[in-house]
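dumping this here so i dont lose it again. seq + smiles for flavin-adenine dinucleotide
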Amino acid sequence: MSIKKHEFGVCSNYFNDLKVNEIVKAQVKRNLDFHFPTDVKDVVMIANGTGIAPFLGMINDNQSKIKTHLFWGGRTQDSLSIYENIIDSAFSKKTLSSFHIAYSQEQKDKIYVQDLILEHQDLLSGVLNTNGVIMICGSVAMQNRVLEVLHTITTTHLDKPLSAFENNDQLKMDCY
Ligand SMILES: Cc1cc2nc3c(=O)[nH]c(=O)nc-3n(C[C@H](O)[C@H](O)[C@H](O)COP(=O)(O)OP(=O)(O)OC[C@H]3O[C@@H](n4cnc5c(N)ncnc54)[C@H](O)[C@@H]3O)c2cc1C
């Protein structure tokens, strides 16, 4: 799990105040629509902030080493530090093929994850064209911007609206 602490948040402060080895009572609520596909050649994961959390788990479980590309947006280089070891180990285990980062606060002109998607439009259209899957997790604001860019890419490169790929189960989303 990766949890953002809200100043007055009930659950995030509960987790923050836990001591190592303290036991948490919890229940798993399965989300059947948001699972790592195991029958495709390529997967693209797009996240911002704590939206990276489910993807780190999926990458860790990527036993069959499906080609996986992770795009992530964070505020500063510091935001990456808590995930760095996990990413490095994924590269050495070959469970992650590429990692693209957009920092919004590190330079004068803000860079967001949707800007990276546009820069890599050949990769994105190629993955969709060969029945690969795109997964999105993070804020709803990020999701909306990314969907706009993806729609532009599919209409330009593949002559189809993004909805055609969504209807074909090639687009999975879990945003909040
Ligand atoms: C599908 C899904 C996946 C998610 N995945 C993640 C994830 O991986 N990681 C993650 O960090 N989050 C994730 N979230 C978001 C997460 O659920 C919320 O951030 C979390 O529930 C906040 O819980 P909380 O109890 O800490 O805050 P709450 O107590 O619910 O408070 C919510 C907000 O209200 C404010 N607030 C509460 N009480 C007061 C008060 N008295 N006065 C002023 N302000 C107040 C809090 O500061 C906070 O900003 C996900 C959400 C969804 C729907």
